[in-house]
Amino acid sequence: MSATVLRKRRSTCPLNVALEVFGDRWSLLIVRDLLFKRRHTYRDFAGAEERIATNVLADRLARLEAEGILFKKHDPADARRVLYRLTPKGRDLAPVLVEMILWSARYERTAATPAQIREMTEHKARFIAAAKASS
Amino acid sequence: MSATVLRKRRSTCPLNVALEVFGDRWSLLIVRDLLFKRRHTYRDFAGAEERIATNVLADRLARLEAEGILFKKHDPADARRVLYRLTPKGRDLAPVLVEMILWSARYERTAATPAQIREMTEHKARFIAAAKASS
DNA sequence: CCGGATCCGTTTCGATACTG
DNA sequence: CAGTATCGAAACGGATCCGG
After folding, report:
1. Burial class for A96, CB neighbours closer than 10 Å (0-12, 13-18, 19+)
2. Number of residue pairs across A and B with CB atoms under 8 Å?
3. Could you tell me what percent of chain A has a pLDDT over 70?
4. Residues of chain B with C-beta less than 8 angstroms from the C-beta of A23
5. Can you give the distance from the CA of residue B1 to the C1' of nucleotide D7 in angstroms?
6. How long is the CA A132 to C1' D8 vector, in angstroms?
7. For position A68, what pLDDT does the model report?
8. A17 with B104: Cβ contact below 8 A
């Protein structure tokens, strides 16, 4: 499966380009883990509640790396351990994620608390900056 | 295929809920057509440059209708014709689309013009309001 | 152990042909 | 025109295996 690394672009419509990069069930969940949940290892992603299959996870990590959204790095504290980190391009997906989260919280039953939503709504720019800085 | 209409929620994480609703290659392109391109019929969607297959299109329309994002309506001017329209819930996806478009325009080669991007960036709220109003 | 790769049965996709 | 039917290809998922 991990042969599916770099899909070729078939359209230059901006929305379609974005969907060709991360328009699937899993890619943005990995970005979320990196941006908001301080998860940085393969095990962290695999252990997330959505239970992505390991082969799909490996495929998405390779794809996101090929797209320049994240990169691999050895843990300076333990060279055996591999850490995944967002590039600036990956961090700039934060506004997309925030809008998706706000939409869900408004229209679907979710686990987001009103306080979290209020913070994200009223101080959106600050929230995004903080997520980028801490990721 | 159109048996796959309502997927059951497997998580209450807000981002994951959003991805369960429209986390695929096609759903948001239909919303884009309705919001920004004044396309409202099956033929309009099928004729878009991305060339969605008709069976997938029928499935996504049914799914988005089941999710309360759009609804069908007979054209008042020609009762034989079926029009698709966004609900308020569907129109509120506009900020998600805008952020995705801005991200693509920034990091990928797209057909968006600098003037369009500047308008969407500098007058984001106005742009979104206009799209909602005209959809 | 950790970070995957491989297998394999099932589901979904995508292209095209077809139909009420 | 607005979808269905069909069918091969691709993706998914779960389990297991493997190299460092």
Report:
1. buried
2. 129
3. 94
4. 23-25, 28
5. 13
6. 44
7. 96
8. yes
Token pair for residue B103? 């991200």
Q: What is the mean pLDDT of residues B14-32?
A: 96
Q: Is B104 close to A68, i.e. CB distance below 8 A? A: no
pLDDT tens sequence across A78-101: 988 999 999 999 999 999 999 999
Q: What is the pTM of this model?
A: 0.94
Q: Which amino acid is at A18?
A: A
Q: Which helix (H) or strand (E) holds A84?
A: strand A78-86
Strands A70-75 and B70-75: unpaired
Backbone angles phi, psi at A71, to 5 degrees: -145, 160
- Nucleotides, chain D, CB distance < 7 Å: 1-7, 10-16, 20
Matching residue, tokens 């969605």 = B52
- Domain architecture of chain A: domains with CATH: 14-134 (1.10.10.10)
B17/A contact by beta carbon, under 8 A: yes
